[in-house]
Amino acid sequence: xxxxxxxxxxxxxxxxxxxxxxxxxxxxxxxxxxxxxxxxxxxxxxxxxxxxxxxxxxxxxxxxxxxxxxxxxxxxxxxxxxxxxxxxxxxxxxxxxxxxxxxxxxxxxxxxxxxxxxxxxxxxxxxxxxxxxxxxxxxxxxxxxxxxxxxxxxxxxxxxxxxxxxxxxxxxxxxxxxxxxxxxxxxxxxxxxxxxxxxxxxxxxxxxxxxxxxxxxxxxxxxxxxxxxxxxxxxxxxxxxxxxxxxxxxxxxxxxxxxxxxxxxxxxxxxxxxxxxxxxxxxxxxxxxxxxxxxxxxxxxxxxxxxxxxxxxxxxxxxxxxxxxxxxxxxxxxxxxxxxxxxxxxxxxxxxxxxxxxxxxxxxxxxxxxxxxxxxxxxxxxxxxxxxxxxxxxxxxxxxxxxxxxxxxxxxxxxxxxxxxxxxx
Length: 425
Fold this sequence. Notes:
Blueprint lengths: L20 E7 H46 L12 H19 L9 H24 L1 H7 L1 H84 L2 H32 L2 H7 L5 H12 L11 H15 L8 H33 L4 H56 L1 E6 L1
Parallel strand pairs: 1-2
Helix pairs in contact: 1-2, 1-5, 1-11, 2-3, 3-5, 4-5, 5-11, 6-10, 9-10
């Protein structure tokens, strides 16, 4: 509350634009230090401007302290009807006197930093608010029973109000002067962070480059070893053995497919025959139905041949009835007829494969290992080269951003100091 009224004043301040001169180069850190110096100079200017304000405020507070002492000891004259309010009036006086003495003892330190300046203004405002509040709350007592002191208090409050307005004006000027400093500081902070990011990416890129070189060296070594290996007579021999093994295994696979095809034609007959048979017969029937090629590797296939003959008899006698029984009988005859020959081929191929596996094929396996490693290195190299290109793009992009930031910061510094600096990192 401001019972005695507030007076507002706004001083205008015009600053001439400095002449810009060339001043060399600065690092980001040096530019930040320079900004702090510029800001410190602005704060010192503010302190110089606030020095007479503080002196005047001190004088006004001394006057208020004197008025409080006078109020404390003055004898208040009360009319008859006012005697009943004596205790209220005395309490009001004690409250005002105590508050005024407390506020009159307030001391103000000239600011050494922006934060000090803000505290200076806030402290002055808080003091004024408290004085205004107490005098406003007890204005009736002051104006009726201590009118002489109230008028003097009003004069001092108006003087302090003018001083507060001067402080606000000075702070407003400081904020305006600091605006480019704050903006430049923010730009430099952002630039510094981006530079740190660039350095980190550069370090990462160096690691990537090292990994690429190592991988290229290892790849060259692997290719050399593979070339030497494949150029040897021993490898040709081993490769020939492997080729024969693959051919034999391929023929075995064809035999399996042939057996599956043969027995699939009589699968319905097996299903019809599967009722009410022994477990042993059921086991053999399952082999013929699901994995008929296994029969070919048995030492004695007569149990299976006998089973096939039994199934044929059952179909021929009508015990097992099928729509196309003649075809099924023909298929069974074909199977029974070809089974010994197929068994001989299968076992001959198995024997050949087993014999070939006894040969030395380590060089072929080693060649495959080398080829797999070479393929892995190719993949890893492609990935690292892609990462390296990405890192280069990131560095170029951030470098461009930093250059633009430092150019803008340099322009602001030139306006603030009158000196044109080339900012670098």
